[in-house]
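Q: Structure tokens for this one, please.
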Amino acid sequence: MAKITLDGLRHSYMPDPKGPQDYALKSLDVEWQDGGAYALLGPSGCGKSTLLNIISGLLVPSQGRVLFDGRDVTALPPDRRNIAQVFQFPVIYDTMSVFDNLAFPLRNRGIEESRVTSRVHEIAEMLELTSMLKMRAANLSPDNKQKISMGRGLVREDVNVIMFDEPLTVIDPHLKWKLRSKLKELHQKVGVTMIYVTHDQTEALTFADQVVVMQEGEVVQIGTPVELFERPAHTFVGHFIGSPGMNVLPAELRDGAAWFAGHRIELEGPITPGEGRHEIGIRPEHVSLAEAGLPGRVRKVMDMGRYWIVEAIVEGSDKTRVAAMVQSDPTAVGDAVHLAFRPDQTRLYRDGRIATTRQGGNA
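A: Here is the predicted structure, written as tokens:
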């Protein structure tokens, strides 16, 4: 196991990059603690796979360093980093038995057979593969094949980090929850550093203790699932995490206050100094239908089972939509409503980044 440090990391696939737009990764400084469960979360093309390949040694960064426990491994090949990777599609030997697949990484390193047998049975029990150890891997379902891939990474005791690159892509939706839960349970048992790469917020938030959210080659926020949801540091995080995502509303500053559609909006705390494009962010969970507030007209009502999503057009806002999550039977499409924002959950963003300070706290 290892603490992984990315120090001033940048990478471009161009031989002579001219500016930030030419970089797939733009100046990353990230530290993952030994034994932690982390997720790299972001849309396709944001740099997740590039970063994973740099950590694994498949790619040498244009600038910066990769350190394992303070040791510079930037120039080392994958086989000298003691890492294990689990990919989107199961990487197994179909002609081998489940036992031999799990044993292969250990036998390849000359581990004595008694220890191989003991370790294989230990990992097989964790993955619920014990009853299949004598079966040929080719005869198994996709989810069990992916369990074998996971087991091939877990079976080694000398790994610094196990990296999962969208490992549930080929798994049926009804089995994904089970495998996510199993992976979380495995991390708690083996305690090895794990990095899980995905574009799926549910996978990231249910697996990781800390989530690294990426956009266009940059890390926009690192935090626990609760921190990312409750106080997004960037409008992209608010959009990307949550269903539906955070309301992001155009705002202007006047007299030291934020205004939207001609109404002064009470915020969580003081506005930090600065110039730029301003927006107000509030999650639908903190918008309610009330007797007073922003006047609007209901455009859409969606029954989500345990709650409703009401989408309203705010008067005087050039057709800006605001979503509210309500528990009681909502109003009908076309009705006039008033929208109330919970002040302590209402924030101002400047050029995408949070620009308010919580009362008694920090920005």
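A few notes: The mean pLDDT is 91. The chain has two domains: 4-230, 243-354.
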